[in-house]
Every structure is written in C-alpha cells, then in structure tokens.
Amino acid sequence: MKSYNVDQFKGITVAMYSCYDEKGEVSTEAAKKLARHYASIGVNGLYVGGSSGEGMLQSVEERKQTLEAVMEEVGREMTIIAHVGAPSTRDSVELSKHAEQVGAHAISAVPSIYYRLSPQSVKHHWQQMIDSTSLPFIIYHIPQTTGFQLSKALLTKMAAQDKVIGVKISAESTFELQQFKAAGGEDFLVFNGPDEQYLAGRSIGADGGIGGTYGVMPELFMKIEKCYVEGKMEEARSWQFIVNDLIAELLAFPSLYGACKAILKLRGLDTGEARLPFLPVPEADMGRLESINKKIITYISQAQD
Ligand SMILES: CC(=O)N[C@H](C=O)[C@@H](O)[C@H](O)[C@H](O)CO
Ligand SMILES: CC(=O)C(=O)O
Question: Is the ipTM of this complex over 0.90?
Fold first, then answer.
C-alpha cells in the first residue's frame, strides 16, 4: 500500500494550456483566471507545465511563475500536479524542489528529451527528482514525442518505490495501459493520456485521466466519467463518440494547442497564443473554429441537463 492519499488524483485532471499576455510573456493573471474557471466547474485537478502547458518551450523561471500562480489561486481546492520534466536533470530537480516549496500535490516528468537515452539514464534522471522532495511522483509516458519506450520491467522497478504513485500513459495502446496497471498493483495509479480513448482506458484499468482537450470541454469528460461510474456504458460511449468527433475537428488545425487556446479566448478566457513553433489559428479558419466552439457549448449544456 502507498503511504500517500492516492484517491485525490482520481477523476478528471485538466492538462492546463499555457498562459501568456499579448506580448507572449507568461501571464500569471491569465493562469489564475483559467485555473479559477476550472475550479468553478468542479474539475478535480490540474496538470501544470506538461505538453499542453508548453513546459518544454518555457524557461525554468516561467514555469515556476505559472505554477506559483496556479497554487495561489486554487492550490487549496484542487489537486495540482506539477510537470517538472526538462531536458536536463539539473533543471528538473530545481523545478521539483520549487514545486514542493509552493505546495504542489505531486510532481511528474517525462524522460529527458532529444538525446537517445538508456533506461538506466532515464531511471537515474527520474530518481534525482524523486529523491529531491518528499512529494509523490507520477511518471509521464509519452513515447510518440519523447522517443523513449518505457518497458514493463522499468515501470515495475519504479512502481516498487512508495513515492512513485502512478503513470500517465499517453501511448495509444490500452494493452500497455492494462499491463502497467497490473505491474504497478491495485493502488498504483494509471492515468489515461489519449483523450480519444478515455472510456477505453478507464474500462481497462485507468483510474482517471489527464488530458489537454479536457481544457475546452471538461464537462464532457466529467459526463463520461459519471456515466461510467454509474454503469451507463451505452451513454458513456455516445458521449465519448461526440468528444471524438470534436477532437478530430480540433486536430485538423495547424496546431491543436493553438486551436484550443483560441476557443478559450472566444469564451473570454484569453491565454494568449500558443508559443511558436505552434502556429495560431489562421484568420481564414476562424469561422470554422467559432462553429466548433458553438457545438461544444451546446453539448456541454446537453450534458448538464
Ligand atoms: C501530445 C498531447 O498533447 N497529448 C495529450 C496528453 O496526453 C492529449 O491530451 C492529446 O492532446 C489529446 O488526446 C488529443 O490528441
Ligand atoms: C499531461 C497532458 O496531457 C499534457 O501535458 O498535455
């Protein structure tokens, strides 16, 4: 049994999008407003500075500022996971210590990126972060972007530590998800990564999900979760299909993050543009984006009926 309260991480965790001002600088004001918005609709947790949060495109200082703003605003009401992974172990450890100082509930990290690393190097990289704080640690497995294939053997070794409470798995294999859950044991948390497979992941053993597109429609993922918990599988499935059609439309823009952030802006939640190399929504596509936004809003109101 883990000595940490793992239940607080279950359910829907929004991977927060980056928050910038009109000049492209980190905006703590926008981060607070966005975090407050999620708290107000009853989202369980936030994942800060991950893929959707563009942590890899930000300086260590910018990442600290963002996390501090989120903690200040909602740290007492929501479960906050700080993504502290950076290419260098040094920066990752600095971010880990900072996350503990400001009261985050857990730290999480991808393997170091760019270099092709041995499993021993990745294990050591993660271990330095783990040993630098008393916070629980969540592995972030996203091989399609990092290139690192986390083996069941390494996962099992990591999960044996009390502090390693879970893995967020963004690989699209639900087989791998199930195998990781089995390897980690009953109270080892597995978070579904691909939003398109939330229900599939949940059905095969995931304890909850952490996702980027949740950010523009958390209510719909909360609805899928509710239907699943109540055993209404057909209804859960029909909501997942609705969500998937929306995600397919969002993926057709030059950048998914750019499109989602533009949707938030249409709703009065201005988080600035995604940072380059992520492209903004082309002017010519704004009409299409507006109609997707309207569709999402309609579904959200139906989900709440
Ligand atoms: C690479 C990436 O951003 N992955 C996210 C987290 O796993 C997902 O939430 C996706 O954004 C989502 O599933 C859309 O494909
Ligand atoms: C964790 C995740 O889904 C993201 O960072 O986008």
Answer: yes
